[in-house]
Amino acid sequence: MENLRFVSTDEIRTRFSTAMSNMYGQEVPLYRDLLDLVADVNAQTLQATPQLQTRLQASGEIERLNPERHGAIRLGTAQELSGIRRVFAVLGLEPVGYYDLSVAGVPVHATAFRPVTDASLAVNPFRVFTSLLRLELIEDEALRAKAADILAQRSIFSDRVLALADKFDAQGGLDSTDADEFVREATDIFRWHSEATVSIETYNQLLSAHRLIADVVCFKGPHINHLTPRTLDIDAAQTEMVRRRIPAKESIEGPPTRRHPILLRQTSFKALEENVTFDSGTEKVVGAHTARFGEIEQRGQALTPKGRALYDQLLLRAREAAEQASVSYTERLARAFTEFPDDLAMIRKNGLGYFRYSLTDKSVGASGDAFDGTADIEALIEAGLVQAEPIVYEDFLPVSAAGIFQSNLGGDDQKSYQASAAKAAFEQALGAKVNDEFALYEAAEQRSLDEVARQLQSVTV
Ligand code: OOG
Ligand code: NI
């Protein structure tokens, strides 16, 4: 039974995401400008499109929109990853999906920690894209050993945060005072440290192996490297960034502009160059590091494996063609995606996206005869008795993530690695299996169908 002394994990997550957003706003003031921009764009979009407002109100999404954020962290060791899993469990976050970024020249693999139930997602869908450095991809053996050695010396968790995570496990929850202390301690893990733990020579060596390796290895902890508010119109947000002279990334990642958004579209402002102090034992040297930025996302419909395969295929076509083409990437992308239906009924009938089904107002007054028990869902939709709303995509996209990484690491050297997914090794480091994102969406869709069937039965009897 639920213990009333405890605050819910949803509540702890909301306190945490608020604390993180406040901390990052102080650390990176431009992030606050981004929040203002997104709030303005969202208000204008809702005003200009009353149907969207009505739809978001009906689905309850309007309430989660303002506090909605995702963040990203990069970890160095298996111990750090399994520790983070325990800390995030207190916030009601579970690992979902496996992302191999080595294919895109970034030596990490990753998962997304996020809530998994409909109810928790509705309260606050805060997520953290969490990468683990793959030291085995560093070719230089001596440098690899050195990086491992430096990482082995740091401890990113305070005794207190671990003790509170133990207490959460033992009691099955935390009371409000413990929750507040936990949030303070957990937020601290992701704070920025402007003092590197290494000399500038070591930093430069790691930087030349890959800029990301320096970012992970040379600091006291895994600083949050961006936080991302959700917009209702990313094209407007992109234009507005340029107008407000925020140094925007050149193009939006993900699918093109559509009437019915799918998956995820993202843009960002370029990472700041920040002063860092390096310690060479005898003296302190000031240098610079680029890693932290701000991002904006627009979320659309979650796709089935079939829809996702079509997305991947069309994206690849646009990207390959873009290399030698005279037309812009945006134009190529738009052309490629004319093959992806932009009509909800077509998406549904072709099994490309996930939907949440419910009875319409019309069904309330309808007599039992309207449901003869044999009617299938399409017939019920046709008759206006059942409606199908797209389920929101709650995850990330590996190609987009790679684009975000690349545009924010500074420098433009492209590395390539022997591409190799290593999901089993990742799960071993994590100490758990990652949830399958498709299974989660499918279950959400099925629950809605079961509920419709149950309600229909109560009408017919
Ligand atoms: C993570 C990049 C991935 C996204 O939104 O796709 C990401 C990173 O830069 O560490 O956050
Ligand atoms: Ni991101």
Task: Write up what this structure looks like.
The chain has three domains: about 325 residues, Uncharacterised protein PF07063, DUF1338 (2,3-Dihydroxybiphenyl 1,2-Dioxygenase, domain 1, Roll), CATH 3.10.180; about 40 residues, no CATH class; about 60 residues, no CATH class. It contains 20 helices and 13 strands. The strands form five sheets. Strands 3-4-5-2-7 form a five-stranded mixed sheet. The chain is globular, with a radius of gyration of 23 Å. The two termini are about 35 Å apart. The relative contact order is 0.14. The model has no long low-confidence stretch (mean pLDDT about 90). The site of nickel (II) ion has 7 residues, from β2 and β7. 2-oxoadipic acid binds next to β2, β5 and α18. InterPro entries: HGLS, YdcJ_bac-like. Belongs to the 2-oxoadipate dioxygenase/decarboxylase family. This is 2-oxoadipate dioxygenase/decarboxylase. It is an enzyme of class 1 (oxidoreductase).
Topology:
Elements: E1 6-7, H1 9-27, H2 29-48, H3 50-59, H4 61-65, E2 69-75, H5 78-90, E3 94-100, E4 108-114, H6 118-123, E5 127-133, H7 141-152, H8 159-171, E6 174-175, H9 176-189, H10 200-209, H11 211-217, E7 226-229, H12 234-243, E8 264-269, E9 273-279, E10 284-290, E11 294-299, H13 305-324, H14 329-336, H15 344-349, E12 355-359, H16 361-365, H17 377-382, E13 386-390, H18 398-408, H19 423-430, H20 437-460
Parallel strand pairs: 2-5
Antiparallel strand pairs: 1-6, 2-7, 3-4, 4-5, 8-11, 9-10, 12-13
Helix pairs in contact: 1-2, 1-9, 2-3, 2-12, 5-8, 5-19, 8-9, 10-11, 13-14
